[in-house]
Amino acid sequence: MSETTPLTNEMPNDAERLAKAVTEALTDSMVERLTNTGANAMEVVDKLNDEDTRDALMYAMDRLTDLHRVGALETLFSLLELVHGAKSAMTDSMVDRLFVFVEHMATNLATEELATLAHNARRAMEEAIDETAEKPTSGGLMTTIGMLSKPETQQALQLMLAFSSKLQSRAVALRGSPEIEGN
Predict the structure, then answer these.
(1) Could you give the 3-state DSSP secondary structure of residue 38?
(2) pLDDT, tens only, 164-183
(3) Type and span of the H or E element at 18
(4) 151 inside domain
(5) Residue 124 belongs to what domain range?
(6) Looking at the domain assignment, is residue 46 inside a domain?
(7) What SS3 state is found at 32?
(8) Number of structural domains, the chain?
């Protein structure tokens, strides 16, 4: 004996039987979960209507594709695993020592003199780049020899030699220092 549908007085098809079976099989908690999932999905879709969110998501997806294409995605995940492993391996005393080190470095490096030195070095580098970019290059051994005969070239070479000599002397003196040997 078969059932007939009230609207058509025909035998129900497979889709109707499947829908009826699913409806009868759903419990109240299953319906609640489906409702919550649907609401959450609609909230996500609604957030995608925001232009900034959509642009950010599209940018992130494009960058992920680029990272995958060049093989950097594996490197990124390896780096994340390394950072997580380091975080897991750190003890409280290691964290304390790390903060003492960072504080010491910030105290010693965050001085007005060092900031001025860095600023002056950056400005000198920018000016040197601008100056050399404007000069045409014509090359050869004779041009180089001609440059070496100029007083400003000789002065610059003397400065670099004196600087490297002083730096080397300080490094040798530091190597023999008891403060360095104790670390």
Answers:
(1) helix
(2) 998 888 888 877 766 544 44
(3) helix 14-25
(4) yes
(5) 91-135
(6) no
(7) helix
(8) 2
